[in-house]
Amino acid sequence: MSVVFEDFLKNVPEVNRAFVSNIHDELLGQGCKLDIKEAKSGYAASYRWDKKTVMNWVFRKTGMLARIYGDNVRRYEAEIAALPADMQAKMTASRDCKRLLNPSECSDTCVMGFVYNLDGNTYKKCRNDGMFFNLSDKTAPHIQKLVCAEVAARKAAM
Q: Is the pTM of this model over 0.85?
């Protein structure tokens, strides 16, 4: 049996449902496709543009998290610079991309991370946790801006 968005939404904390539903509608409206799978800690919902994942929602003991795949992050560095300090700190403290630093250290199947500049420093981060944020009232609008900026950058690249 296929999992539908309404099943996924039932597992989203009530305080976040309106936001998750809103960003869902926005991403579908921009042409993204949704794929929902059952995972160990709940559902995982992935949004794809042109067959490549843009973001996904995952559940952890700490709550619901958004993983944004910033393949085009250099095109929206202004949004990164506008993030609250704690979200910037989360990004800069995330693990570095092994493949960007030394291609022989990572798997050949690795898609590779992303590179961005912030406060005069260049960061080379793993795409799996370089933009991995807990969903809260404070982070929600920034998550939405980042995801929409990534979709817009992917569309512009076509």
A: yes
